[in-house]
Structure formats: C-alpha cells, structure tokens
Amino acid sequence: MPDITLYFLQASRSIRIAWLLEELRLDYKVEAYDRESTGLALANVKRRCGTILGKAPVLKDGDTTLYLCENYDHSHRLFPADQGQRIKTRE
Residue 65 and residue 58: Cα distance in Å, rounded? Predict the structure, then answer.
C-alpha cells in the first residue's frame, strides 16, 4: 500500500483529496490542523507539510488529483484505462 499522508487544514479544499483517497480505497494517514483566529495556517502546519505558505491540501506522496488517479486508480473507477479517453478527461 502507498505511504500517503494528507495534511488536512480546516476550511480548505483538503476534503476533496480526502474524498478522492476514499474513492480510490487507499490507505492514508491524516494530520489535521486548525487555523489561527486570523484564518491563516499555523506556523507548525507550514513546517510539517513543507509549504511556506501553509496551503492545503498537501500530500506527501504526490499533490494532485490527476496524479492520484493515474497512479492509484488501478480498477479505473475514476479515470479511464483507454489512452484516448484519458486525453479527453485531461482536457
């Protein structure tokens, strides 16, 4: 199984990646963080996930939905197996 860690920042788009990981039936770890009262990411989030801006979501094993689908959707539930259909999906 992949060693994936999702850095989940509250009030971000992290839920989209969590949903995708669930749909792909992948094992993953979650490190969830709250925001400061200003709405910014806490300093420890920036250090832990490796992004100085504190943007989320961040994956340790990759960082995009396309990457996850191409590399982990072996049953082709979310991303077609046919190369021609893959090109259309990317457009």
Answer: 11
Per-position pLDDT tens, the chain of length 91: 557 888 888 877 888 889 888 998 888 888 888 888 887 777 777 666 666 555 666 665 544 567 777 788 888 877 788 888 877 776 6
Helix (H, G, I), strand (E, B) or coil at 12: coil
**Tokens 């839920």, residue located:** 15
Interaxial angle between packed helices 65-72 and 14-23, expressed in degrees from 0 to 180 and rounded to the nearest 10: 10
Q: Report the C-alpha gap between 9 and 32 in whole angstroms.
A: 6
The shares of helix, strand and coil residues in the chain, as percent rounded to the nearest 5, are 35, 20, 45
